[in-house]
Amino acid sequence: MELPTGCRCMLVGANGAGKTTLMSVIGGKHLCKESAVRVLGRSAFEDTTLSADLALLTGNWTHTVAFAGHNVPYQAMEVSQLIRSNSAGVDPARVERLVTLLGVERSWNLTTVSDGQRRRVQILCKLMKPFKILLLDEITTDLDLLARQDLLNFLREESEERGVSIVYCTHIFDGLDGWASHIAYIAKGEMMFALPRWLLEARPDFAALLTEPPTGAAFTPPADAAGKPPAVKVTNLTWRYKPGQPAQLDNLSFEVPRGARCLLVGANGAGKTTLLRLLGGKSMVPVDSVQCLGYNAFHDIELNTMISMLSGDWTRQVACVGNGVPFQADFSIGYMAEEFAKALIRDGHYTETLVRARLHRLVTLLDMDLEWRLHQVSDGQRRRAQLLLKLLRPSQLLLMDEVTTDLDVVSRQALLQFLREECDERGATVIYSTHILDGLDDWPSHVLHLINGKAVYNGPLATAPGAAQGLGPNASASGSGSLFGLVKGWLLAEREGERLAAKDMHVPCETTPPTPMIIDAPAVPPTPPPPAADADKAPVRAPGKFDRFGSGSSSQRMY
């Protein structure tokens, strides 16, 4: 592979193809033959001066941030500190532009913001300094549509105006039409091609590779849903992480019917992850304010076997034989799946025939090798293992929070088809939060749209605002899918509303002369009493406030 200066190369391939490994090698993270990998005419590994010209941004942001020379997890810092520590010697105008473009607020405390907002801060810290080479490995997975589009536009300007060379590894193709100047495709560690985009588009069969998404069918509730409570019912829910903080969810009320495939959408920080955690019973809420399948989400333990929650934080969401086991441990996928299958059969809730058939179906659908060792495979392959273990139990309610971010296109479509069949055949209900809308046009039956913790729309997708123009035959030929355009329009309207609201808040204040502060003169300290008449005795000193030993002054100083 050879890429020219100023290129924007999109690196694609299936999970486990070697994309992340290739990016790490180009970034100088692994030793290789000096002549094999050259960056800016220099050896990628041997020449340490490349660190001033090359930046590698990966999805694992908690380990890729430096503060004051030490690797510190993002949750330990305030944004203002990070900006100060990373902007030394950088043009302040560039810093301000990136802060505005990424929608970062200096007052954010990273212990309380969403993953998408933390991701914006990571990107801000890495892009403040102008590099010549940018290696981007799945860094937009947590960003909402608008933040992702703004970042892509900025990167295009960097390549066109400053000659920055960009290699962008991603499985998210929403809004990428026309962005890349080159496309590289890697399969099983072999570079199949790395060509300018115009050469690929000139292929005779290029048009045949683009297919229109099918039209979604109308939603039909399960036959046994009559007379049963809805799958999810939230009533007047207001929730905040700490007293005195702004509410993450504000007087929220909505219902999701049984058998629905509900798409949960909203900008970063809208409250999507918080809502899914409360539905999953992860935090205490008032009785009857959050009900799932007719039970109280936090208080009724019957829901433990009826709900499956899958989140992006997969290292703490997987159980093997009843114990939480990090995915990086040296286990084979087959061992973990077999032990979990035995546990399901042993509990007596499911027959062995059902469990074995479901296991075989999931392994085939996710294209998994049961001999994979979990500490040796890619993030996408580990994600498949999480999905296998979580979906093996036939749950009635599936709560999914950005679980497809590491999956390639084929695996993502296979998972969506499986979830559709779960709803149609078993009457299961899925609530799926994602910013990846590629290939989703005909998938959701319902949509829940959150803005700042409030539900602005909840109902069938067909009756959503703008759906009549944005879906079906009236959809614009944007090349990225009509659902993408619909949700993007909602987020743009939300951003414009916030801009106008912020503008209205800047009202000129009347100039009032300052009131002088009146400071009383300090009081004269009282005269100490004369010493006792018995001068032969040493004065006994009362223990001070910090004198834990209650005796000499040396002990007090030591404490």
UniProtKB/TrEMBL annotation:
| Pfam families in the record | ABC_tran
Q: Does the keyword ATP-binding apply?
A: yes
Taking every annotated instance into account, which residue ranges of this chain make up the domain ABC transporter? Answer: 1-213, 232-477
Which segments show compositional bias classed as Basic and acidic residues?
534-548
Matching InterPro entries: AAA+_ATPase (IPR003593), ABC_transporter-like_ATP-bd (IPR003439), P-loop_NTPase (IPR027417)
Supply the Gene3D superfamilies for this chain.
P-loop containing nucleotide triphosphate hydrolases
Q: Which UniProt keywords apply?
A: ATP-binding, Nucleotide-binding
Note the superkingdom of the native organism: Eukaryota
GO molecular function, a single term: ATP binding
Ranges annotated as biased composition (Pro residues):
523-532
Q: Positions of the region Disordered?
A: 520-559
**Name of protein:** ABC transporter family protein
Origin organism of this chain?
A: Chrysochromulina tobinii
Lineage runs: Eukaryota, Haptista, Haptophyta, Prymnesiophyceae, Prymnesiales
